[in-house]
Amino acid sequence: MEVFSDKHPKLKIRDNRSGCPISTSLEIMGDNWSLILIRDLFLERTTFTEFMNSSEKISSNILSDRINKLQKYNIIEYRLHPKNRKIKQYYLTNSGINFFPLIYELFVWSKKHIDMEFGPIATDWYTKNEGVERKDSIDNTILGYKKFKKKLLSA
To answer: What is the DSSP string of 68-131?
Structure first.
């Protein structure tokens, strides 16, 4: 994978404070709710209600704001549920999928440096990936999500 490839469409950022790529990226994704939402999408949660039911208990107005922000920056998109067109099913774009290595690193850092009991989903993920090479763990998770997304969009 080419790190600095220009193959993907790039976001047009006109109102950033800085010419620093880290600062600009944090303006887009630097709040904890956006990353939690992306995490939830990797956990195959797709609806507003499923996001609301996450253990972090995000408020509905903040959730709406973050969904709109992630759509604005082409990190997520949605489709209408085929059986109930009032329900939006959100999914990650390729740009959103490319955030997984960051989520992986945050998880590994937390496991290594924070003394706390992790929830069952995190514990299961860690157990399943313990001893698996970083690249393989990331690639397997991304591949699993892409299969889920393909199934979601073809239903």
So the answer is: HHHHHTTSEEEEE-SS-TT-EEEEE-HHHHTTHHHHHHHHHHHHHH--SPPPHHHHHHHHHHTT
Distance, in Å, from the CA atom of 94 to the CA atom of 73, rounded to the nearest integer, reads 12
Q: What is the pLDDT of residues 80-119, one digit of tens each?
A: 999 999 999 999 999 999 999 999 998 888 888 888 888 8
Model's pTM, two decimal places?
Answer: 0.84
> How do strand 76-80 and strand 88-92 relate by DSSP bridges?
antiparallel
All domains in the chain, ordered by first residue: 25-154 (1.10.10.10)
DSSP-assigned letter for residue 3 = T
- Calpha distance 128→91 (Å, rounded): 24
